[in-house]
Design goal:
184 residues, alpha/beta, Rossmann fold, 2 domains, five-stranded parallel beta sheet, two-stranded antiparallel ribbon, 7 strands, 21% strand, elongated
Length: 184
């Protein structure tokens, strides 16, 4: 497994299922800028209001057309089997909630401080453990770390604007200096 951060801005995402977990995954994808559609026979979670499309109906073969990322949150093994089969045929990124072996990506427990994001995963073994570890990291992360990220972004941009590369620079001293400012 290789944890990556994807830019979901404008990416078409389909969530099949609208229970608590499906609604939460839809909200996470929307917060990342994705265009989210939901197909569900019933709604028991709190669906976001700014969905691209919502269809109250059963999943049918062909529903994955036009999507890049799919989340199967149906709670129905037979329906999930159909979604897994179609997603594999189409080469789509798929998360089957509560079934990490059939998923080719996992949601991580996230901590955001401005431009800084810390993500914790257990590869689907235990979302509760991921959340607990995220919360422990949050307890020791200084609030001012967002300011440090803003300053470093500006300094790197200034170098890029002058035509210089930032690849060979050892930023550790500057990072520690900025973190020292926000911790004091």
């Amino acid at each position: 497994m290789l944890p990556l951060a994807f830019n979901l801005e404008g990416v078409n995402v389909l969530v099949v299922g609208a229970g608590r977990v499906g609604a939460h995954k839809a909200a996470q994808c929307l917060a990342s800028g994705a265009r989210v559609s939901v197909i569900a026979t019933s709604v028991t979670g709190s669906l976001p209001t700014n969905l691209d499309r919502f269809q109250r109906r059963a999943y049918v073969s062909g529903d994955l057309e036009g999507f890049s990322l799919v989340i199967a949150a149906t709670g129905d093994a037979e329906v999930n089997d159909q979604i897994v089969h179609e997603a594999k045929q189409r080469g789509l990124w798929l998360n089957v909630v509560d079934d990490p072996k059939r998923s080719n990506f996992y949601f991580m427990a996230l901590l955001h401080r401005g431009e800084v994001t810390v993500a914790v995963t257990t590869r689907g073994a235990s979302p509760a453990l991921s959340q607990e570890l995220r919360d422990r990291v949050a307890a020791v992360m200084p609030e001012g770390v967002a300011h440090a990220a803003e300053v470093l972004r500006a300094e790197r941009q200034e170098l890029h604007d002058s035509g210089a590369s930032t690849e060979g620079i050892n930023w550790r001293h500057r990072v520690r200096e900025l973190l020292g400012e926000v911790i004091s």
